[in-house]
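Input sequence (330 aa), recorded before submission:
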Amino acid sequence: MESRESSSKLISVIIPVLDEAESLGQLADELRAVAETHHLPIEVIFVDDGSRDDSWQKILRLAADDARVNGIRFRRNFGKAAALAAGFEAASGEIVIQMDADLQDDPAEMPAFLKKLAAGSDVVNGWKRKRYDRWQRVWSSRVFNWMVSYLTGLKLHDHNCGMKCFRAEVVKDIDLYGELHRFIPVIAHARGYSVTEMEVRHRPRQYGHSKYGIHRYMKGVLDLMTVTFLIGFGQRPLHLLGGVGLAAFLLGALGLSYLSICWLLARFGVEGYGPIGQRPLLTYSLGAVVLGFQMIAIGFLAELMIALNVRNEHNYSVAELTKRRRQMGN
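Predicted structure, token format:
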């Protein structure tokens, strides 16, 4: 049974839509049934991400029939991250739930998400233990989830699950772009929010076809590299670029020092030491020195860009203020 606190708070359900006209009516009916059964105050925000079918017309009809349903339509396909960002910005609830429009996420799971959130977490991530996808997608997803957990330190079984629940301050504190929507729990965790997971039911797709392919996982790996870099060095790029550059410079300098000693010994006629101009080590050492200088210079440029562009942005997240400080802020 969900807590009274969760039941009294407005819940914003954000649903990105891409060519899912056939499933929207049933999804809206299921959301309505769950809200009425559990007395949940909800608003539903469908974000049409450039659908080429009748999805937007369906959303308009649903909004006309139910005042709790709202819609946002993009001029073209901007991607799921953009759709979620638009939905998060439009959300007015204290609790935000995201789910997919293909009916594979079950709205009946919402009370369990709210109960988990009320227990003290800021983010509740779904975990589809039993999946009804092709084996290729299941196994590639498991590998991807292991990589994300290992590289980011956030141990979740299903980072890419489409159903998640957040406190509103979490989504307002995160900037989404590209394909970073799958890393919302990772980014939230890096900003100090508590993240947990719960098992959810995964239903077979009834209409349409999956939008995922192997290319999505390739992009996911690249985005994982981006997130790992931003979390670890987003505010201090010189620590990474300068560290690599300094190591390369020192190795190159060491090689040049050795070659200089060899050249001096050859000049004094010491047997076994000849000209150094044809040695590969000379080329490698000079290249390492030049690379080191370049990496350090790029690191300084990155630091300069951050200093100029992030002056008014905070790289921290405030959880709470004392009463006096809140009054001063007002």
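Checked by second reader. The beta strands are 11-17, 42-48, 69-73, 95-98, 123-127, 164-167, 195-199.
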